[in-house]
From TrEMBL:
It comes from the Bacteria. This is Helix-turn-helix domain-containing protein. Residues 15-71 form the HTH cro/C1-type domain. PROSITE patterns: HTH_CROC1. InterPro entries: Cro/C1-type_HTH (IPR001387), DUF5753 (IPR043917), Lambda_DNA-bd_dom_sf (IPR010982).
Amino acid sequence: MRDIARARLAMGQELKELRLDARLTGRQLATRFGWQGSKISKIEGGKQTPSEDDIRAWCDATGRPEKVDSLIASLRAMETLYGEWRRQLRLGTATRQKSWAEMEAETKRFRVFESVLIPGLLQTSEYARLRLSQVIAFHDIPNDLEDGLATRMHRQEILYTRDKSFHFVILEAALRLGMAPSDIMLDQLERLIALSLMPRIRLGIVPLNAQLPFAPQHGFWIFDERAVHVETVAAELTLTLPEEVEQYVRLFDWFAEAAQYGQQARQIIMKSMEALAEGA
């Protein structure tokens, strides 16, 4: 079960205890506020997340107003685990990039897996421009492309921080998919070769013909041993439960074992460059 589901269920159980202590039935509580009867059971069963107004009303009805602040704090903490993209990006891409930078500043060891994209910390400015412009268009958010791009490129300065280490594993497919025009992609691949020579960066490329240990369902970032960040089309998820972080660490290790490094990785990149140049 995901962190968000656990947190929602725990909150539901706490609200249920408040209702039972007040000797109220679910129907009585729902009637008092004009709610549908199913709302009570869904909240208490962890199937629906209450709003802040719901929590205030619930605590008022059960005679426990002192619980409001702690429950709302838990709700807001829960929302950091799972955030809708439109809410996260409503202020534009630069704000989201700054949030990433804050998380990265707290991290010493990075482990990053990507199946179809070049990771943000390794992107050229033109490749990054394409990715951010797609996000802006798809989610119909404020167009702050230049600010977002500048912030993303500024994030890359962390690669030169002496007390941090970076291990990137990328499927060869990410080098060959039509994610950018040939000239932009060629520049991007050249940058990967240069970055692979940096002492604090370990870059692994999983060849197309490699036997994959597990289906690559999505990319993910592991921050030390404390959190895993996963992005989907509609949402983002931050996992912090130790057993869930351990699962992603194990999965990363599997992909890392299938990857090629050093000169072998650079040869894979150069073959992709040759294929792009021939097709240009």
